[in-house]
Amino acid sequence: MADGGVKTDKDIFLALICGASTVMLGSALSGTDEAPGRVIEDPATHMKKKIYRGMTSPEAVLETLYDSGSSEELDAALETAPEGQEIQVPYRGSVSSILERIRGHLQSSVSYGGEITLAAVRQKVLPDPSAFLVPLSAAARSESYER
């Protein structure tokens, strides 16, 4: 499972071909209608934003335990180091367009791998990933774009 650090569609593809069966997309989908959180308007920019809380943020943990936990669980949670945070992210509307984009990039990546299924690319890459996963040079990176 790829959990954390997934910023681009490329990261999703790399995780899947290198053995992950699941990719967590918390922040990638955080500003969508389907994600939990409330939509607010930024008073400075008048842009819509959504409050995003990682599920191990202090706010999320305390809310969960306040609603259903015991006082001992609440005390233990207050003593635990937080892992997530609460931030404002741009509002992005429905998740469907994001998922369509990811699907398209995965299909394109599979074709670049010379196969017709993700499983076939994984079988090709897993025995020797270094033969397929070559870092881009600075020049190549400047000519490319993030996907």
TrEMBL record:
Protein name in the entry: Inosine-5'-monophosphate dehydrogenase
One GO location term (cellular component): cytoplasm
InterPro entries (UniProt xref): Aldolase_TIM, IMP_DH, IMP_DH_GMPRt
Keywords: Membrane, Oxidoreductase, Transmembrane, Transmembrane helix
Gene Ontology annotations of biological process type: GTP biosynthetic process
Region forming the signal peptide: none
Gene3D superfamilies: Aldolase class I
Pfam (any one): IMPDH
IMP dehydrogenase/GMP reductase domain residues: 1-144
Keyword check for Nucleus: no
Transmembrane feature ranges: 12-31
Species per Swiss-Prot/TrEMBL record: Candidatus Accumulibacter appositus
GO molecular function: IMP dehydrogenase activity
Enzyme Commission number, as recorded: 1.1.1.205
